[in-house]
Structures are given as structure tokens and as C-alpha cells.
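Retro notes - structure team

What went well: the batch runner handled both jobs without manual restarts.
What didn't: labels got mixed up in the shared folder, which is why I'm recording both outputs here explicitly, each with its sequence directly above its C-alpha cells.

Job 1
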Amino acid sequence: MVFDADVLIAYLGREDANHADAVERMRGALEPGTRRMISAVNYTEVLIGPLRHAGSAGADIVDAMVARFGIETIQVDLALARRAAAVRVRTRLKLPDAYALATAIHAETRADGAVRLESFDDQVVRAYAGLRSVPPELE
């Protein structure tokens, strides 16, 4: 399971319109054998609001959530950066959304099972569905 930032942001924000749905998605992420991932870029997006409102204590809350759910932060290396750029060119998504898709594609190339991208953004979900068969230039 790969998270787009919006799901984790909604999970943390009780006032968020998608909070209840985010809670359900996070419960689903706890299924045994589920590997949970987020790109370092999308992790950065999750941090912004808590840092703005609570400083380092807000960042600590995000880190505690990431640890509690066992979410692996996928570091940005040259291969992931290139994949994200190619996704952005093909889909015209914003760069952070391209990183979410690139991370999901990265997970597909290394996974034994199906990869699920969790996002509330329909455009991101549709773009991921369109990229399920990984073109050679994204490898």
C-alpha cells in the first residue's frame, strides 16, 4: 500500500472532510502482510500543516503516526526522481502527486503481490490506473 499525502493529512485532521474515510483506509492498511509506504516527498507534504500549527511537536505527531503504522519512507534517489519526472510528463500531475505514483510503480516492480495506491484525488487514482503497465521509460 502506497499513501498519497492527502490520506494521512485527513487521518490527522479530525475536521477534515475525509477524516472518517481516512480512518477506515488506515484500518485496512493494518491487514497482516501489508507493506505500507510513502515517498519522502509526500511525507514532507504531511509534515507541513502540523509544523505550521504546532512546530516540532506537530512533526513529532506525524513521526509517531508513521512509526505506529509501520509506514516505510521511500527515499528519493535518482531512479525515483527520474520515474517521477516521467510520470509528471505523461500525466501532467503536480510533482508531489507524480511522486506518489512513482512510488507505487516502484513498489510494483519490487512486490510479490498487488500494490494499492491510497489517495482521495480521483485524478491521481485514474492516472495510476493508466500507468499500471509500466512503460520502459519509467523503468
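Job 2
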Amino acid sequence: MYKHLLTASLFTVAISALAQGPWKMILTCPEEKIDLVMNLYKEDIEVPGMEMFGPMNGYLGGNIYGVWSITSFKIDSDKNVSLRVSNDLGSETQAIQITQQNDSVWRMEFTGHNVIKRVNGKKLVKIPSVFLMKKKE
């Protein structure tokens, strides 16, 4: 009986650890002041300014114009995911490729035409198409 209880307990702990997976985290780029908040396993993230839509899989925010919510994604592997984000008006979308470089660094690349911008003075300017992000603890 003890063996069965121990086995069941260990199995439950292992499943719980796997459910967290690599795609539930906050990534940040301190140089660009941009954060990517995501949980690709469950829609449980409130997007700032878009609470009326309910929980989503995540968003891209920070030093960019508006908040970009994750509208779709494809997990390619434990180290690679494709995201599609939309701006807060829903008028523009951007494809993003996230690739894990090592335990603490991820590469974010905007694929196709980069439409995400930031305010610089009185102008909207494009942000870099590729930058490195770190996991926020």
C-alpha cells in the first residue's frame, strides 16, 4: 500500500512540474525596456487595459506603443515557439519567433515586416527586429 501511495505522489509531482513547462514565464529585455508575459498552457493572464476581454495567454508591453496581446501561438519545441500578437486596437498584427539560447537567455525576432513601434520624442519609431531577453525571476 505504501509503495502505491508513494508512486502516486511522485507521479502527481512529476505531472505538475511538466505542466509548468518552458512557456509559462516573464521575459524581459532591460536594454529595450520590453516585457513578454506569457502562459501558453492556460489563458490566465489579465492584459493591462484589456481586462474586458478576460484572461489571455499573455502580452508584450513596456517601452512600446500600446499593449500587444498574444492572439495565437504554435509551440514548435521546448526551445522554440511562434507567436502572433495584435495591438490594443486590433488593427495590426506581428509574428514573433522566440528561441531559447540557453537556460536564461531567449532570442526574440519579429518575422516579416516589423510594425511594433515606440514613441521617441513626438515620433513613432520602429523597435529593433531582433533582441535578447532574460527570464524575470
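One thing worth noting from job 2: The longest strand covers residues 68-77.
We'll revisit the folder naming next retro.
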